[in-house]
Amino acid sequence: MNEFRVCRVCGYEKGFHVYLREQEKGHKIGLICPSCGQSFDVGWIVADLDESAEKGTKFE
Ligand SMILES: [Zn+2]
Q1: In the 8-state DSSP scheme, what is residue 14?
Q2: From edge to edge, which strands make up the β-sheet containing 26-32?
Q3: What is the number of other CB atoms lying within 10 angstroms of the CB of residue 33?
Q4: Span from the CA of 60 to the centroid of ligand 1 (angstroms)
Q5: How does pLDDT run across 1-12, given as a tens digit for each residue?
Q6: Gap between the Cα atoms of 13 and 27, Å rounded
Q7: What does the radius of gyration of the chain's CA atoms come to, in whole angstroms?
Q8: C-beta neighbour count of 19 within 10 angstroms
Q9: What pTM does this model have?
Q10: CATH of domain 1-46
Q11: For the chain, which residues score pLDDT lower than 70?
């Protein structure tokens, strides 16, 4: 995949939100269109995700 930025369902062009879902072997990371809500599985799986989700930098 060269680039995946535009939602294939509604055409929103500014990228995606992400979601994390626990699986047997770690967590799946997927994309959600912020405009229409369609989710996309791009095959990302993280084995050792830190579940504390501590706050980091707040971007303005
Ligand atoms: Zn969309």
Answers
A1: S
A2: 17-23, 26-32, 39-46
A3: 20
A4: 24
A5: 788 999 999 999
A6: 26
A7: 13
A8: 13
A9: 0.77
A10: 2.20.25
A11: 51
pLDDT of residue 8: 96
Residues 6+ away with beta carbon under 8 Å from 1: 42
Ligand 1 centroid from CA 5, angstroms:
10
Q: How far is CA 49 from the centre of its chain?
A: 14
Rounded distance from Cα 39 to ligand 1 centre (Å): 8
Instruction: Give the per-residue pLDDT at 25.
Output: 84
| DSSP state letter for 48 | S
What's the CA gap between 15 and 51, in Å, rounded?
Answer: 24
**Ramachandran angles phi, psi of 31, nearest 5°:** -110, 145
Dist. CA 3 → ligand 1 center (Å): 16
Q: Which of 6, 53, 3 is nearest to 33 (CA)?
A: 6
